[in-house]
Design goal:
CATH topology: Ribosomal Protein S5, domain 2
Keywords: Hydrolase
Oligomer: single chain
Organism: Lutimaribacter degradans
Largest sheet: 5 strands, mixed
Enzyme class: hydrolase
Distance between the termini: 61 Å
Structural class: alpha/beta
Number of strands: 5
CATH class: Alpha Beta
CATH architecture: 2-Layer Sandwich
EC number: 3.1.26.5
Protein name: Ribonuclease P protein component
Strand order of the largest sheet: 1-4-5-3-2
Number of domains: 1
């Protein structure tokens, strides 16, 4: 079977077809839990200048944007210390799943969060403990305890 060809006139198809991806210019794509994903390096660097808290399975960075928007934005990163690309992607997938479960309940609107994976810990820690680490880190960053 051959793939379909592009239209010769290069016009988009007419009708009620939704876009394939979120096209919000100011923010990254919004996932099912309502979190906006950080994509720009500048956003990661601003979060690195703000509050930090190391927990057992990751480093959590948080910053209050103070720009009036209420979205919770989150970014994920792992250095090469975590391992090869397969190990880094696995660690980021696990942090993404933990963020989807925890941030809508414990994150604050208008804040940016960056989760940084740790070598061996992020990929191997039981998922419930990974979520508990994130909740603990958020409570420390926000001064709840």
């Amino acid at each position: 079977m051959t793939p379909p060809e592009a239209p010769r006139d290069a016009k988009p198809p007419q009708g009620n077809t939704p876009p394939a991806a979120s096209v919000c210019p100011d923010h990254g794509p919004v996932d099912k839990s309502g979190l906006v994903t950080l994509k720009k390096r500048a956003d990661f660097l601003r979060a690195a200048q703000a509050r930090k808290r190391g927990v057992g399975s990751m480093m959590v960075q948080a910053r209050d944007r103070r720009d009036g928007t209420q979205a919770i934005r989150v970014g994920f990163t792992c250095s090469k210390k975590v391992g090869n690309a397969v190990a880094r992607n696995r660690a980021k997938r696990r942090m993404r799943a933990a963020a989807r479960a925890v941030l809508p309940l414990h994150g604050r609107p208008g804040w940016d969060y960056v989760l940084i994976g740790r070598a061996q810990e992020t990929a191997q820690r039981p998922f419930e403990l990974l979520k508990r680490d994130l909740v603990f880190g958020l409570s420390k960053l926000h001064g709840d305890t």
